[in-house]
Write a structure and sequence with these properties.
Largest sheet: 5 strands, parallel
Strand content: 15-25%
Helix content: 25-40%
Order of helices and strands: EHEEHEHHEHHEEEHEEEEHEEHH
Number of helices: 10
Number of strands: 14
Distance between the termini: 19 Å
Shape: globular
Strand order of the largest sheet: 3-2-1-4-5
Structural class: alpha/beta
Length: 337
């Protein structure tokens, strides 16, 4: 499946300001993508609100816009440039949220812009906690016992200790642990305020379990590769972005590692990611071997940058090529040829 030639121009959304919880790994990913898209003769447009990034240097894209990363700002760029496609999977949570907003607002349909990299329904399935839970359970795996909460009134019947996870936020923002009902009320109130869709997941605490991540890539021909395994030295309870990590993982037996590999392949297929990298996080009880799927990023993430540097495998470059139609067997491995 060679590159799509029905597409001539592609717009890439950046991630905006470099702040705690959203760092320059998305600039790294965007630069890789813009480079390979240009090599494939696509006209590239980049929109990013942060002029201090490498991807906004004039030489990286054919057109560069330093504009607010909000619905109006990105829609105005799309209306002016009329690209054939929009690639949102390289700009972190900001770009994914904007892609959803542009689709829901009818902007993409009105301008005839195709969303590539991850369709809207796949983004929703990975990011919406209830849809993700259904996808995971459909392949025989387990997520922590949980309840979707949209109002404070729903909190009183829930068990503690618990973890609060807001939908569609980055870096654990608005989430946290609750040891008693009073702290659960406070944490849910904060999470509802931070979630752009006013939804949080309250789930059983797996604090203290081992945490592992797998960086996985799938193409439209259903080839799946695990690029890298990552082990958190800190147990569950420390956000993975704040933890010291080791790549590859070091403490699992081969049998336990293969269980994680099989689970990761099943999850990426159930969610439906077809054109790029995903980061899938697991909690595992060292005592019992029980496994829980924690969450999934259907995009390039901080872990992708770590895995790329640990292995030498250019995940963002490969993700960009998959988004425009290539399959994994058509993309040479830069390390081995």
């Amino acid at each position: 499946m060679p590159a799509r030639r029905d597409l001539e121009s592609i717009c890439v959304i950046g991630s905006g300001p470099i702040v705690i919880g959203q760092a320059c790994e998305f600039d790294y990913a965007g630069c890789q993508a813009l480079k390979v898209l240009r090599e494939d003769s696509y006209r590239t447009i980049v929109v990013n609100s942060n002029p201090a990034t490498i991807m906004t240097d004039p030489g990286f894209a054919d057109r560069t816009y330093i504009e607010p990363l909000d619905l109006q700002g990105v829609a105005s760029v799309l209306a002016r440039e009329r690209p054939d496609a929009l690639l949102p999977t390289l700009g972190g949570q900001t770009a994914l949220n904007l892609a959803i907003a542009l689709a829901d607002g009818g902007v993409l349909d009105d301008l005839g812009v195709e969303l590539i990299g991850a369709p809207v329904e796949v983004i929703r399935r990975a990011e919406d906690r209830e849809e993700f839970k259904r996808a995971v359970e459909s392949c025989g795996l387990r997520v922590p016992l949980s309840a979707i909460v949209t109002t404070l009134e729903e909190v009183d019947d829930l068990a503690v200790p618990a973890v609060v996870r807001p939908a569609f936020t980055l870096g654990g923002h608005g989430g946290g642990f609750a040891e008693d009902l009073a702290s659960l009320h406070r944490q849910v109130e904060s999470g509802l305020a931070e979630s752009p869709i006013g939804q949080v997941l309250v789930e059983e605490s797996v604090r203290g379990w081992d945490e592992f991540e797998l960086e996985v890539i799938r193409d439209r021909a259903d080839n799946v590769v695990v690029v890298c395994s990552i082990e958190n030295l800190d147990p569950m309870g420390i956000h993975t972005g704040d933890s010291v990590t080791v790549a590859p993982q070091m403490t699992l037996s081969d049998e336990a590692y293969q269980e994680l590999r099989d689970a990761a392949a099943a999850v990426i297929r159930a969610v439906g990611v077809e054109t790029g990298g995903s980061n899938i996080q697991f909690a595992r009880s060292r005592e019992t071997g029980e496994l829980r799927v924690i969450e999934m990023n259907p995009r390039v993430s901080r872990s992708s940058a770590l895995a790329s540097k640990a292995t030498g495998y250019p995940i963002a470059k490969v993700a960009a090529k998959l988004a425009v139609g290539y399959t994994l067997d058509e993309i040479p491995n830069d390390l081995t040829g």
